[in-house]
Amidohydrolase family protein
Amino acid sequence: MRKIATEEAFTIPEIVEAIRNVIRRGGPNLDLLLLKQLYEVPASPPAEAPSDSMQVSNRDRAAKDMLPKLLDFDTARLATMDANGVDIQILSLVMPGVQMFERVQAMELAQLANNRLGEVIRRHPDRFAGLASFAPQDPRAAAKEMERAITTLKLNGFIVNSHTGNAYLDDPQFLPILEAAEALGMPLYIHPRAPSDGMAGPFREYRLEGAVWGYGIETGTHILRLIFGGVFDRFPKLQVVIGHMGEALPFWLGRLDFMGAPGARAGRKNQLLPSEYFKRNITITTSGVEDPLALRYCIDKIGADRIMWAIDYPFQPTPSAVAFIDSAAISDTEREKIAWSNAERIFRIKKNH
């Protein structure tokens, strides 16, 4: 069966070095905890270190091992795809993208990353598609880069890593970005990052900031701000994609519809039920959630047309993600939609891929 993986990460050397400079400066942002693991070699623990310290070091090494995979396009990545029957990866710049850099640097690195991505796709047109990065730090320049990415580089949509400067896309300053995404008719993938500074406290002590919990909470909150802020009413054709089986939001839709119906509370601007936006404006991917019961629930709740398969390469193993979509107790029609045909339609992947 044809397979298109829809949340697959990469980076480029220039962004690696820029991130290392951010790490050297330090600061309170929770993303730095993971970034230190990805981009700095952890110190070896002393011989007398307790076992829990050794386990932390091993986890640090595992994170560090991700960097060569993120930088690779032509060897290990393709070999893994071939070995597991993955036809296409939709590539996107790894979290946090360019969103922790100052404005000019962020704009320049987003353009560079998009150019490199375009080159990779031209080199392997039947194996890769791509989502364009942009710098929300300058929304008008971001909109121009979004247009260039689609019209000139022929990319397949956009990627943003939740908040920028602790602000979310419902903030009026980001209107040019939303206008561009809707006008260009291409999807905006909202990928997680660690909780913003205002909600970071409870996540720090037990390292809850990442994929274990914080990522889903952060991105789910972002989507609810778009819903209750009326963004999807102002931009009814805007298409947003979120990963990780919808960041748990499909499982809350009954309560959200009850508590968040139009006019249910002061200050809410939504004209539809939250579940209606999921059926009109929001598509989810399975990235990192290989649970057949969760998949069955989401199909029944929002429909198979609103779900796409993903691996979350290189952070999740490819073989288990492939086995999951091959073996899940769903119909052949549902499997075809989720494994590849929805991705072709939503990301406008040409048939010759």
Notes: The longest helix spans residues 103-123.
